[in-house]
Design the sequence.
C-alpha cells in the first residue's frame, strides 16, 4: 500500500498541533513508522515564515514529546515541514496551496496523496472542505485525499446531519476519518483482544455471569480555557455522546465476522441501536447531573464552575453525569451498564469495571463477612493495564476468605514505548485503516440517544446536584447504584 502523502494541518498554530499532532509525527519518525515520501504543511492565520514556525515546533517537541529530541530525526522532519499563512475564508489561499502542494509532490514524490487534518473550531469544518472542493484539491482518482476531523461533530443530531451532508459532498465516507482519541489508546485496542482471544473470558461475557458493567472517566482539571464551548455542551455532549458510548459499544458488541473496519463498526452500531428507549421517567430516575463547586484539588483550592472564565455566573450546565442504561439484546438483557464522567474529580482515571455475579452462599458466605465479587478492570489511563480480583483463603488456621488481585501493568512492562493515541491514529490514517475512527452511523445513533436527554433537560427544570471539587461527584450518583444494591468501584 502506498502510504506516501502530504499531511495538511488546518490550525497549524493551535494547541492541538503543538501538543499532540507534531509530537506524534516525531514519535512516528523515531519508531520508523513514517513514510519515506512525506511532507507536512501547516496552515494558520499567524504571520510566520516556515523557519520561524519550525523553531516554535522544535520548542513544543522538547516540551511535549515523550522522547528526548534527537537531531537526526528532527532534521529530517524539519526539512519536510512548511508553514502557509492565510485566512480560511480566503479562496486565493487555497489556490496558492494547491500550487505549493504540487511542487512538494515533485520534490518528495508523494504521488498527489493528501491527508487534510482539521484541527480547527467546528464552524470552519464545512467552510474548509467546501473551499478544498472549489479549488480542485479533492479528486480521489489516481491518488487519495482523506479528511481527519476532530470532535465535536455537530452540536446535536440536526447540526451533525447538516455537517455530514456538506462533508460527504466533497469526501466519500471511506475517506472521512472522524477522530475520537480514546479509541487510539492502547488498552481500548486491547479490549477486543482480551474478549475475543481468551477462552476464559468470552464464554462468560454475557448476562448469565456478569452482574453489571461500570464505565468511568474522571478528570481533576476544570474547563480550563474551554469555558465558552463547555458551557454550551456540558459533560453529556462533551464526553457521553462520543467517548463513553464508544467504550460501551466495545464492551457490549458481538464478535465481528472478521477484523475489517466495516465489520467492527457494524457490530458497534448494533449496540447503539439496541440501547433502551429513553423516556422522561427514566431521565428523572436513572440519570444524575452535577456541577462542581469550590474545593481542594492537588492541595490547591480551585474555583467553582460558575466562576470559571467565559462561564455564565448562573449556568446550569452539568460538569458531571452518571447514568444507568441497558442494552436490549439477548446477550445483555437485564445487565445494567453504569456510566459516569466528571470534571474536578478526586483522581484522573478512565477505567472499565466488569463485575461478575456472586456465587450462591451454599458453601461460603453463610455466616462470615461478605465475600467480594470477582472483578475484571480494564485501566485505560493514566496507568494502562488489566486488574483481576478473585477470592482465596487467608493463610492461617481460620477459614477466612479474602480478595486477591492479579495486576498486569502495561506501563510497567513496556514503559513509554507504547504508541500514544494520536500517534496510532495518524499512522492508521496514512495506511487507510479507519477501524479506530468513528463512522457516520455511530455518530448518528449516539446523537439520537443523547439528544433525547439534552432536550428534556432544556425543557424541564431537572435537578442539578452540586459536588465539591476534589470529590467523587455528587452523593446522588452513589444512590443511583444503591437502588440495585450496587456501588461504584473506585479501584
Sequence:
Amino acid at each position: 500500500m502506498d502510504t506516501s502523502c502530504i499531511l495538511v494541518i488546518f490550525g497549524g498554530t493551535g494547541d492541538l498541533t503543538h501538543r499532540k499532532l507534531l509530537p506524534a509525527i516525531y514519535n512516528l519518525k523515531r519508531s520508523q513508522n513514517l513514510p519515506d515520501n512525506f511532507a507536512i504543511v501547516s496552515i494558520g492565520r499567524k504571520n510566520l515564515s516556515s523557519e520561524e514556525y519550525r523553531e516554535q515546533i522544535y520548542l513544543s517537541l522538547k516540551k511535549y514529546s515523550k522522547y528526548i529530541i534527537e537531531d537526526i530525526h528532527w532534521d529530517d522532519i524539519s526539512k519536510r515541514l512548511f508553514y502557509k499563512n492565510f485566512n480560511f475564508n480566503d479562496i486565493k489561499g487555497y489556490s496558492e496551496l494547491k500550487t505549493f502542494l504540487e511542487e512538494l509532490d515533485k520534490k518528495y514524490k508523494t504521488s498527489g496523496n493528501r491527508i487534510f487534518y482539521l484541527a480547527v473550531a467546528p464552524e470552519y469544518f464545512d467552510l474548509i472542505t467546501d473551499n478544498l472542493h472549489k479549488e480542485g484539491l479533492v479528486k480521489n482518482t489516481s491518488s487519495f485525499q482523506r479528511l481527519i476531523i476532530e470532535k465535536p461533530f455537530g452540536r446535536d443530531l440536526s447540526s451533525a446531519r447538516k455537517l455530514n451532508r456538506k462533508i460527504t459532498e466533497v469526501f466519500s465516507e471511506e475517506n472521512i476519518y472522524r477522530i475520537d482519541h480514546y479509541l487510539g489508546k492502547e488498552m481500548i485496542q486491547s479490549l477486543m483482544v482480551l474478549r475475543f482471544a481468551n477462552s476464559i473470558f468470552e464464554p462468560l461475557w454475557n448476562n448469565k455471569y456478569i452482574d453489571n458493567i461500570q464505565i468511568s472517566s474522571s478528570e481533576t482539571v476544570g474547563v480550563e480555557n474551554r469555558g465558552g464551548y463547555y458551557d454550551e455542551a456540558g459533560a453529556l455532549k462533551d464526553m457521553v455522546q462520543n467517548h463513553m458510548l464508544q467504550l460501551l459499544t466495545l464492551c457490549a458488541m458481538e464478535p465481528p465476522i472478521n477484523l475489517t473496519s466495516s465489520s467492527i463498526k457494524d457490530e458497534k452500531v448494533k449496540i447503539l441501536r439496541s440501547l433502551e428507549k429513553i423516556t422522561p421517567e427514566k431521565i428523572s430516575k436513572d440519570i444524575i447531573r452535577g456541577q462542581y463547586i469550590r474545593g481542594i484539588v492537588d492541595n490547591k483550592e480551585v474555583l467553582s464552575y460558575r466562576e470559571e472564565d467565559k462561564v455564565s455566573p448562573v449556568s446550569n450546565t452539568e460538569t458531571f453525569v452518571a447514568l444507568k442504561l441497558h442494552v436490549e439484546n439477548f446477550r445483555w438483557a437485564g445487565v445494567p451498564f453504569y456510566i459516569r464522567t466528571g470534571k474536578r474529580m478526586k483522581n484522573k482515571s478512565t477505567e472499565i469495571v466488569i463485575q461478575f455475579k456472586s456465587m450462591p452462599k451454599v458453601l461460603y458466605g453463610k455466616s462470615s463477612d461478605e465475600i467480594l465479587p470477582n472483578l475484571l478492570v480494564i485501566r485505560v489511563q493514566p496507568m494502562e493495564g488489566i486488574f483481576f480480583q478473585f477470592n482465596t483463603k487467608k493463610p492461617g488456621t481460620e477459614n477466612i476468605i479474602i480478595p486477591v488481585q492479579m495486576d498486569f501493568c502495561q506501563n510497567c512492562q513496556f514503559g513509554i514505548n507504547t504508541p500514544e493515541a494520536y500517534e496510532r491514529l495518524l499512522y492508521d490514517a496514512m495506511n487507510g485503516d479507519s477501524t479506530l475512527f468513528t463512522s457516520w452511523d455511530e455518530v448518528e445513533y449516539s446523537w439520537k440517544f443523547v439528544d433525547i436527554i439534552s432536550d428534556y433537560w432544556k425543557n424541564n427544570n431537572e435537578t442539578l446536584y452540586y459536588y465539591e471539587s476534589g470529590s467523587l461527584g455528587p452523593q446522588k450518583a452513589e444512590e443511583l447504584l444503591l437502588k440495585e444494591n450496587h456501588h461504584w468501584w473506585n479501584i
